[in-house]
Specification:
Helix content is 28%, strand content 35%. It has 9 helices and 15 strands. Helix 7 runs parallel beside helix 8. The longest helix is centred in the C-terminal third of the chain and has 14 residues. It is flat.
């Protein structure tokens, strides 16, 4: 049993008869992220890939721009020297210090739940600042898009056990799964899969597609744009703000990708249609 799963007993009712049944649930625990030792935010997440989650989150918040901004990322220790699994400290190179001080001054110290992407931001306008338009350099076939749900589904082992986790995957133009992540929070899944690429110094991700299991919210679009992913697809619906931001930024946004059908909300020039 991994940290991401927890065993529990439930009463399973069938035809009016209840029986005790062993089950598993997706774990949800707080992760406090500290910047140079100062508390910045607490995120409700599924334990695992905490370094990647922190890196992806800080990229989306534009506190870092690349792996070169980072020092050591590690879990803190208690008085006995044992690692504390729910507290992680992010160190930075000296050149980033002024940016960290501004972030700590501007940030409302909050706990973000697993469905929240912008709880600590002061205004929506703040998220719009500094996003560059996405150039259109390549396209993929409609058949390739239709293959994305199967590729993502194959990368969800924890969902198979619990039925309660979101997933995000980075896929190349040939349909190859590059990386994937699962979490109770759809925003967290995106931060984990992008953060892994940050730590491997693979930014920008302008040759990849991002496919997510949940709805395509404004925050998911913003995370894709900061990582420079030009195509975002979802099995569910986008929000109106997500469509507006994608249109303004030149990102291709697809929704309801199921079987051989999907909706193109923005950026149709990247989809090859017969």
């Amino acid at each position: 049993m991994t940290m991401a799963l927890q065993r529990l007993d439930v009463l399973k009712v069938h035809a009016g008869v209840a029986r005790t049944h062993g089950d598993v649930a997706a774990a949800e625990e707080p992760l406090e992220i500290r910047l140079n030792g100062t508390s910045f935010v607490t995120i409700m997440r599924t334990p695992g890939a905490d370094r990647e989650l922190a890196a992806g989150f800080l990229l989306a918040e534009r506190i870092i721009a690349a792996a070169d901004d980072l020092g050591v990322i590690r879990h803190c220790t208690d008085a006995q020297g044992d690692a504390t699994p729910n507290v992680i400290n992010v160190g930075f190179v000296p050149a980033v210090s002024a940016r960290i001080e501004r972030a700590l001054a501007d940030r409302r110290m909050v706990t973000t739940n697993s469905s929240c992407g912008v709880c600590g931001r002061r205004t929506i306008d703040d998220l719009m600042t500094g996003i560059e338009p996405m150039p259109s350099r390549w396209s993929v076939s409609a058949a390739m898009i239709a293959s994305l749900p199967e590729a993502l589904r194959a990368a969800q082992p924890l969902f198979d056990e619990t039925g309660g986790l979101h997933a995000a995957a980075l896929i190349d133009r040939g349909g190859r799964l590059v990386a994937s992540a699962e979490d109770v929070g759809r925003h967290n899944a995106v931060d984990k899969v992008v953060g892994a690429q940050v730590l491997m110094e693979r930014l920008p991700l302008d040759d990849l597609m991002l496919f997510v299991s949940g709805r395509a919210s404004y925050e998911i679009v913003q995370k894709a744009l900061v990582a420079r992913v030009p195509l975002l697809a979802s099995v569910s619906a986008p929000s109106s703000l997500a469509v507006d931001l994608a249109r303004r930024s030149g990102l291709t946004l697809l929704g309801f990708v199921r079987g051989d059908t999907f909706n193109i909300y923005t950026g149709a020039e990247r989809i090859e249609l017969s």
